[in-house]
Write a structure and sequence with these properties.
The complex is a heterodimer of chains A (114) and B (118). Chain A has 114 residues and is mostly beta strands. Chain A has no helices and 11 strands. Classes of the chains: A mainly beta (114), B mainly beta (118).
Chain lengths: 114, 118
């Protein structure tokens, strides 16, 4: 079946603008995760959804970052008033709830803030 | 909090040779999972192999195997008969077992860039 998809693949934005990044998980996967990959910080967890609720949002770096998930499927990560330090690859992953715990990743969105 | 350490930023090996990537972790948890992910230049993270901490037997997947030493908190990846397509960044990752088998986040190491030389 189809894997995790993310859009856009690349996004260039000016400092101070808002951006929305989209993630379409694998059909039937109840858990969805956002991670950020940057040169300075490596791979960092941002937020986790179980269904439409977010039991763990401990990795969101500031209140400029927010995310939502609707219909237990698509998720949107929003960054308001972007800063240059937000430049990174944003990765989304999904998994089934249960014993396997394997997370399947999308191709990521490369965000560049100029 | 958990930490994952990969002490080899870069490695290279001749095609068809065997290579071992190191990973150590620190945790106070007793029930957890360990993973190796591969990230080729395409940026897509691909699961290579997983290990449950409660299993003593080392996981294997074709040419990939792990050496899991729970007491030493060590989890190395061995790639046998290496192929050009194995060239990628390799990340070691830790996940604690959630309540009622619930999902938890991954904590990643900093990665090892592996190059297979033809």
């Amino acid at each position: 079946g189809a894997g995790v998809s993310q859009s856009p693949s690349n996004k260039v934005t000016e400092k101070g603008k808002d951006v929305e990044l989209r993630c379409d998980p694998i059909s039937g996967h109840t858990a969805l995760y956002w991670y950020r990959q940057s040169l300075g910080q490596g791979l960092e967890f941002l937020i986790y959804f179980q269904g439409n609720s977010a039991p763990d949002k401990s990795g969101l770096p500031s209140d400029r970052f927010s995310a939502e998930r609707t219909g237990g499927s698509v998720s949107t990560l929003t960054i308001q008033r972007t800063q240059q330090e937000d430049s990174a690859v944003y990765l989304c992953a999904s998994s089934l709830t249960g014993v396997k715990h394997e997370q399947y990743f999308g191709p990521g969105t490369r965000l560049t803030v100029t | 909090a958990q930490t994952v350490t990969q002490s080899q930023p870069e490695m290279s090996v001749q095609e068809a040779e065997t290579v071992t990537l190191s990973c150590t972790y620190d945790t106070s948890e007793n029930n957890y999972y360990l993973f190796w992910y591969k990230q080729p230049p395409s940026r897509q993270m691909i699961l290579v192999i997983r290990q449950e901490a409660y299993k003593q037997q080392n996981a294997t997947e074709n040419r990939f195997s792990v050496n899991f030493q729970k007491a030493a908190k060590s989890f190395s990846l061995k790639i046998s008969d290496s192929q050009l397509g194995d060239t990628a960044m390799y990340f070691c990752a830790f996940m604690k077992r959630g309540l009622n088998f619930g999902n938890e986040k991954l904590t990643f190491g900093t990665g090892t860039r592996l190059t297979i030389i033809p």
